[in-house]
Amino acid sequence: MEFDLIIIGSGPGGYVAAIRAAQLGLKTAIIERYATLGGTCLNVGCIPSKALLDSSEHYHNAAEKFSEHGIKLSNLEVDMPQMIKRKNEVVDQTCKGVSFLMKKNKIEVFHGHGSFVDKNTVSIAKEDGSKQEIKGKNVIIATGSKPITPASFNYDKNRVITSTEALNIKKVPKRIVIVGGGVIGLELGSVYARLGTEVEVIEFADRIIGSMDKDCSKELQRALKKIGMKFHLGHAVTNVKATKTSVTVEYKKKDTEDILSIKADYCLIAIGRRPYTDNLGLDNAGVIKDDRGRIEVDKHLQTNVPGIYAIGDVVKGAMLAHKAEEEGVMVAELLAGEKPHIDYNLIPGVVYTWPEVAAVGQTEAQVKEAGIPYNVGKFPFKALGRARASMDTQGMVKIISHKETDEVLGVHMVGPRVADMIAEAVTAMEFRASAEDIARMSHAHPTYTEATKEAALAATGNRALHV
């Protein structure tokens, strides 16, 4: 069987690339090693974690806020099996939606482990032991990533777990230790903290969400402490020992030798993810990887082998589903003769805790390091009528603009629904808007987005109206 394009991996990058390629008239095949389509994002990542985040937030509000709203409850309890069941139903519906889109767009789907025989031939090893080979003029590698699990952490999928297992805990734990203060650890940590679990985070760096603006780190840590999460910053894990029923995590402060320990029900390893290129037969095709295991690509996402491309988590850059989607669309359009472009500076990042965190563009530290003259405008949600009405007053919007041209260089938000609000900032920055442009736009009242307008007013010269 011969195709114009073969895609290995059906996560957001792979399946979106397949749809766009099919729309553009390319005969397209997609290979997925697991039984369901959608990759990490749909099966054990973005979608199930958001389902649990929403469920736990409902419970937390019922326990902590409903009485203030004049809503009385009795015998409130967590039904964890039902919570997991609902999460699984959301995942199932979403994955079936992707299968429908493959059929709708006449994309050939193959299940099995795909690997290169040569640059144009891919072998598919199926579960029943059989193999099938297909040929393609072009191939996209979109195999995603896997959690990093150092051998010293003794990852056993029982008490020492990753995000995959954390999505299927059937009983609310008494205590969880999370190794890593990044997005995945904090999101899942907040799920269980809201349900009543004691959550302790061990992070080697001196702050959480280290890639984001420092003001966002401070605001989020303050908010997470309020729901009971504890933080051990500047600490390193030295050993993890598990039994059938518990785990002991040993750790120490940087530059000291005194070993501390925490006993818990689970240890969640959330120290990052690695590109998943295992047994892909890259050597057979002559594809080169860098020293961190990422596939090397040019500005068109083509590898050193003409006709073979790579997108998403297997290449350099942020490991984000929407980044992978943009790259998939870009490659499909390039193959069809179009001239697409991605501005990587304008791909937003989001942390789906509550309050949420969202950002696009440069942080204040990056602007300062580059020697760019800049202004900063901030506006707190506690000064916003809509936020007070919903009791979501934690957080702020921060806008960084060029001191001389007023062009918006970065927007950083912590607060309610900022995951959706950040799109306004992305739109403005795509059109190279100034802070004054945002400030002069009419924002509906009362809304959370008024905080963006007020921060823009502040960035143009202390003109915020409601502080």
The backbone outline, from C-alpha atoms, is globular
CATH architecture of the largest domain: 3-Layer(bba) Sandwich
Give the oligomeric state of the chains in this entry, treating copies of one chain as homo and distinct chains as hetero. Answer: single chain
Number of domains: 3
Structure description:
- With 467 residues, this protein is α/β, with parallel strands linked by helices.
- The protein folds into 3 domains: 2-146 and 274-344, FAD/NAD(P)-binding domain (3-Layer(bba) Sandwich), CATH 3.50.50.60; 151-271, 3-Layer(bba) Sandwich (FAD/NAD(P)-binding domain), CATH 3.50.50; 355-459, Enolase-like, domain 1, CATH 3.30.390.30.
- It is built from 14 helices and 22 strands.
- The protein has helices at residues 12-23, 39-44, 46-64, 80-104, 163-166, 183-194, 214-226, 282-285, 321-335, 364-369, 385-390, 418-430, 435-440, 450-459, and strands at residues 2-8, 28-32, 108-111, 113-118, 121-125, 131-141, 145-147, 160-161, 175-179, 198-203, 230-233, 235-242, 247-253, 260-264, 266-269, 273-275, 308-310, 349-351, 356-361, 374-380, 396-402, 408-415.
- The strands form 5 sheets. Strands 1, 2, 3, 4, 5, 6 and 17 form a 7-stranded mixed sheet that branches.
- Strand 10, helix 7 (214-226) and strand 11 form a beta-alpha-beta unit.
- Helix 1 packs parallel to helix 9 (321-335), helix 3 (46-64) packs antiparallel against helix 4 (80-104) and helix 3 (46-64) packs parallel to helix 6 (183-194).
- The longest helix is centred in the N-terminal third of the chain and has 25 residues, at 80-104.
- The radius of gyration is 23 Å and the shape is globular.
- The N and C termini lie far apart (66 Å).
- The model has no long low-confidence stretch (mean pLDDT 97).
